[in-house]
Here is the input.
Amino acid sequence: MWRKLLGLRTETAAPEAAPPRASAGVVVGAFGVPAHVGAQGARSAASRVARAGAAPLAPDLSWAVLVLAGERAGDVVRSPDGRNGLPPGTPVLLDGARGAGEEPFAIPREALAGTPFPGVTGARALAATHARVVLRLGPPPAARWAVTGLRRVAGFTGRLTLLDGEEAFDVRVGEAALVADPSAELLVLAGNDAAVAVGFAEPGLSVRLR
Here is the structure.
């Protein structure tokens, strides 16, 4: 008030712009289209969209498999030989990480067990080992998650949108997203109330509401 009476200018500092988010290097493709992202930078695992039995798996990695099609679509399995009894040619999402001694596991698509994230609805860690986390996103009510540590995710119902830096990538039914740099934060939005996706993440995965 006294500044106005004395004829002094009153200046209001402009709010600081939020720093741009680092790009995670998201690549989205259909289940049947092979795509590969090798271990690099902050990445501790190899990822591959492939067909079961099409190529041998590196024996020095612990491999988990997300089934993308057929009667077992949405199931996640890990076995010592990486084969898992799938019919040859079945589209799969492979996650290969250093994990000597990791126990076999099988998680059906319908499973809602596992561990929720504190204060977060609509996201669960279905399994967690020293090599990976099996992550389920959806169905909502939560419609916006901030995720750090995501390596890859596949859409089975509805639609998710991944905000990577300044770009938005839709992951629809029948599509999988691979992330080159899991250390970069992704904003994940559920496109509708039916959105469900399953994927793999770093052991230090962080999921919170945004």
User: Anything to note?
Assistant: The chain is about 0% helix and 45% strand. The chain has one domain: 26-209. The longest strand covers residues 144-157. Residues 26-209 form a domain with the Jelly Rolls fold (CATH 2.60.120.10).
